Protein 1
Amino acid sequence: MIAFNTAAAGALNAARMFDRSAMKVAQTAGTEAADLTSAVLDQKQAQTAFSANLAVLKTSQDMTGQLLNMKI
């Protein structure tokens, strides 16, 4: 359960990071390219973190299911 909670919190943080960087992209329209590049890189990092946390959630769920099957 600890892995599940940690991964859920990580996925939520990644979603928030993506939202912040999307706002940054919208705010930097027409300004320096470096700001836009940084925001896009933040979005890619958030996407990767979100995917990794979802993989942990799935693995945690699968392991819990296997454990319950062994006890029954």
Protein 2
Amino acid sequence: MNGRNGFSLVQVVIAVVVLLLVSTAVAPRFSEAALDARTATLCENLQLVRRHIEVYCRLHEGRLPASAGETGEDFTRRITGADGASQNSRPSPYLEHMPVNPYNRLATVRVGGLEAGAGTHGWRFDPTTGDFQADDRCDTDGDGLPEHKSL
């Protein structure tokens, strides 16, 4: 008896078609999960920096970390304590470093200027109002407005 082991071409084609159907049904769920995770990370980073801005204001008699005409480097230096303000043995009230915006992968800060959503930096700080916002151009619904402006 001549026994042949293996799969026929028809069986292989059917298996490939089934795998393709399953992958097309599951792939959108993974992409939505990745988008949800980036949005959650963005919200966490915004909350973290905003809390540290509040702490900075309390420690500095209501002054904001940057004022009009100053740079993002000034803001970062003050909010991270890199200006030497935190050199004691107690836990530091400052950030270790500026977090990265997960949508454009930038950790730079823009002080003032155009509204948030310019996409030139990771973050935007308004020296007049004290608002801290994401500065990416993410527009998932295609309406021409950055999605993260209201976060």
Protein 3
Amino acid sequence: MIPLPTPHAAYLVFYDGNCGFCSRSIRILHSLDQQDRIHFAPLGGETATLHGVVSDFNADTAIVIQLSDHRKFEKSAAALQCLRALGGIPSCVASLLSFIPVRLRDRFYDLIARHRHRLFSPDHICDIPDSRLQKKLLP
């Protein structure tokens, strides 16, 4: 049985589970998510299948699902949704970045995605997450 996000979770972030940069990004998001509104699952995992993300599987693309209405966000829009979920200053930054045209934001996203394996080694994947993060990691 696949565990479901906790009731106060608002977003589900699907990420490349084999990428050191993505794993590091998840840890940073988790550390900033004081209200535990964001849960995480690897692309291609059981939770992704449950939410119909498998048909969209592309390891270069982060996908965020807003759980209240099941809206799906990809690439730079997914990153902005994560910032909005954090509230405070990150949410303000997301509002400012949303004025940049999507095509330009996504080009920058694609540039980072293409080179993400060089930014952090896969060793970051093997770090054991703290117990609070373990509760937010879905299969």
Protein 4
Amino acid sequence: MPNESIPKQQPTFRRRERRWWRKLVLLAAISCGLLYMLSFWSQSKPGNLGVHNGQLSACPESPNCVSSTAIRDDQKMDPLVIVGDSELAWKHLHDLVAKLPRTNIIKSDNQYLHVEFKSLIFRFVDDVEFLRDDANRYIHFRSASRVGHSDMGVNRRRMEQIQRKFAEFR
């Protein structure tokens, strides 16, 4: 009977705080692990890259893609405008892109450029393609994430940065 008279001890504030921190650390570790595994899936190249019928592929329905040839307003961006010699403009674009961080040029010729960009921490891969259109004096592009649904605007910001730097060449 003496056990019945002793009330159960409530966890102290410190004990509850430690439990909360353990749960938070466990949740963060699981999230990081899942993101890291997802980054491995982003290493395989999609089959829709390259030029098809003289054009770059269309963006998927997900919001993690921008293109100068997109139909949807939220994915559409203006193409790069070639001013002056198109060969020099193309070389400038190639040099500009090569200097950006975590960049790997996959394919480059005098009309098409394919570049992979990797995110800093989880190494997610984004594919950026450029297609030179000398007849219209444009360089069209498509920038898309390989995995996931949203990229939190990363592709758009990258292409806006490239547009600004390319415009300085004029």
